[in-house]
Amino acid sequence: MRPRYSRILLRFWKNCLLREMTFRGHFILRVFGEVGWVFLLLVFIEVIFSKTSHVRGWSEPQYLFLMGTHMLVTSLFETLFFENCWRISDLVRKGDLDFVLVKPANTQFLLTFERIDFASLANLPVGIALCTYAAIQGGFTITFGHSVLFVLLIGTGVCMLYAMLFMFALTSVWLIRQTGLDALWFYAMSLSRYPAEIYRGFAGGTLWFVCVFVVPVLMVANLPANVMVRTFTTPFIINFIVAAAVLLILSNIALRWALRSYRSASS
Amino acid sequence: MAEIHVRDLHKNYRVHVKPAGLGASVKSLFHRTYKEVQAVDGISFEIEPGEMVGFLGPNGAGKTTTLKMLSGLIYPSSGSVSVMGFVPWQRKNEYRRQFALLMGQKNQLWWDLPANESFRLHKEIYHIEDDLFKRVHGELTELLEVENLLDQPVRELSLGERMKMELIAALLHSPRVLFLDEPTIGLDVVAQTNIRHCLQQYNQERQVTILLTSHYMRDIEALCDRVLVIDHGRLVHDGLLRDITERFATHKLLQLRFQNGRMPERPEEFGEVTDLTPPRLTLRVPREQVPQCVSHLLDCYDVDDIAIEDPSIENVISALFRQTAEQASDDVVVAETMNG
After folding, report:
1. B93 contact residues in A (CB cutoff 8 A)
2. How would residue A86 be classed by pLDDT, with cut points 50, 70 and 90?
């Protein structure tokens, strides 16, 4: 008898929704926080482009499109996975991982999908609006094929971020106290917000190399945006998708490995 | 065929030894000292289907560690376990669907939601059919008298009420084997009795196998005929609860009432005086000296009333644990290993 994962997922989401509705004020404040941050970034872009017409070859509409794409990626990741990765450390430290382990369903599934953060979803329509506005402003020709590839790559980027943060979160099995996830996510998000071309010179180049090949966070927004409004090469896209698949497989191996060392905080 | 089969089970932990003080803390950043702790040190037992067995031992004796290995949460260092024919730490879904683990100190219900929402989630995770879910849910909520609390957020429930909900969550999928770790901890007497009663009835009706740890002797006395006593990771007794007294009680209690107010001048010659309120005297006497002591007292004094009693099981067990603790501190159970 296989567990019915789709029904478990629906029940998880329903419970999260019920919880959000209990704390309405908190929810509204968070939505304002999320959306307000976007306006700060828009002001920042306006300031830059009042001094110059291009940043490392990116025009203002292209840059705006990148920002919209980045919002789509981060909003999806934060809605689906951030809280789930974040709470792993808590589950380990308090020993509540026990309850996940005794359930007759895939442990990674339960850990990955139990929570959904509806407030982070607020940036999704804002991101879509920004991309649309930028596309009209720039007069980009966008084909149906490109759009499909765009959606696929956003999904791939989100999976990639998930696999990396999930593995990072698992280190709490050994470290017990592990609160570095916030910082890691902040770095990943800050780095991937800008065109990859700005990372040049010695420091920038090193950062570029690390963030493309070692911890591939840089391309999660850059690649889909490039596909839509600039140029791209097919091998790079294939490599990107393969890398995401490898990271997902690694995350599963890492979980099995971590659980062998799990000590279960005493009760 | 036994439902639970444990053979020569060991679990060693490596723990970081941190001396007190800031200087030592700084030193331990670079150079850590570890010691090997044998949490479970070669225990073996079998439990038949439908049995309800109590697991006794002081804090840190290895009870919870054993339960965790039986639930497949942690891997043993060596030894074998089979529960319903499964190896727990392989965590097969077929296994996990048939047992439940309830921990009195942890809660698995969604804190901000009514318990019913967590129950519905369990229904999906355990793939419980609608009819069965309705029936079991109805039976359990009635048995524990919580029908009117189902739609209140868990955070608003009292500890006792919450524990009942936890118990329902653990029983919804009708497990064949139940591991209970301190299910009544922190509860008042009424709630304790309630939970005890529910477990008893549940065990009788469904013939589930239950292994239960508790600090409350009352729980064990009420629920279990057979007990496993574990201390410092070793099994020191596997048998009937009442046999513990016979096996481990070294003394008996002698309660006497004297006539005419004439009492022994030096009662300590007969045994340890535990109570002296004339004309009553209570003595703690080594078992083998009881007949001799009684005949002497009866010969020399006018005894109005005499009673010879065994000490309570609780006292016997706590004396037993004290005794093994003294032994263990002499033994070398700790092997120091260095790690630079």
Report:
1. 3, 104-105
2. very high
Interface of B with A (CB under 8 A): 13, 64, 68, 71-75, 91, 93-97, 99-101, 103-106, 108, 110, 112-113, 117-118, 120-121, 124-127, 153, 181-182
Give pLDDT tens digits for A167-198.
Answer: 999 999 888 777 788 888 888 888 888 898 88
Residue B337, pLDDT score: 37
In this structure, how many other beta carbons lie within 10 angstroms of the beta carbon of residue B150?
Answer: 15
Number of domain units in chain B: 2
Chain-chain contact of B93 with A105 (C-beta, under 8 angstroms): yes
Residues B280 and B255 in one domain: yes
CA distance A73 to A88: 22
Interatomic CA distance for residues B30 and B18, integer angstroms: 12
Q: Which residue of B has its CA nearest to A101?
A: B73
CATH number of B259's domain: 3.30.70
Give which of B13, B93, B101 to mutate to test A binding, by max A Cβ within 10 Å: B93
Q: Do B103 and A98 touch (CB under 8 A)?
A: yes
* Binary contact (B112, A263; C-beta < 8 A): no
Q: Is there a single domain that holds both residue B240 and residue B258? A: no
CATH number at residue B56: 3.40.50.300
What is d(CA A139, CA A134) in angstroms, rounded to the nearest whole number?
8
Minimum-distance CB partner of A266 among B64, B110, B118: B64
CA–CA distances in Å: residue B242 to residues A188, B64, B289: 64, 24, 22
- Nearest residue of chain A to residue B104 (CA atoms): A267
Kindly state whether residues B185 and B67 are assigned to the same domain.
yes
CA angle B113, B115, B116 (to 5 degrees): 105
Q: Taking residues B273-284, report their average pLDDT.
A: 86
Residues in A 92-121 with any Cβ partner in B closer than 8 A: 94-96, 98-99, 101-105, 107, 110
Q: Which of B73, B97, B110 sits opposite A264 (nearest CB)?
A: B73
Contact pairs from chain A to chain B, CB under 8 Å:
87
Distance CA A125, CA A136 (A): 17
Residue B270: which domain range? 251-309
Query: What single-letter DSSP state applies at residue B310?
Result: P
Examine the pLDDT at A123 and tell me if it is beyond 60: yes
Minimal CA separation from B44 to chain A, in Å? 22
Same domain, B268 and B212: no
CA A108 → CA A85, A90, A104, A158, distances in Å?
A: 11, 16, 12, 16
Same domain for B84 and B192: yes
Percent of chain B clearing pLDDT 70 (strictly above): 95
pLDDT band at B333 (very low <50, low <70, confident <90, very high): very low
Where do runs of H (alpha helix) occur along B17-173?
Answer: 22-30, 63-70, 93-96, 115-125, 130-143, 159-171
- Mean pLDDT computed over every residue of chain B: 87
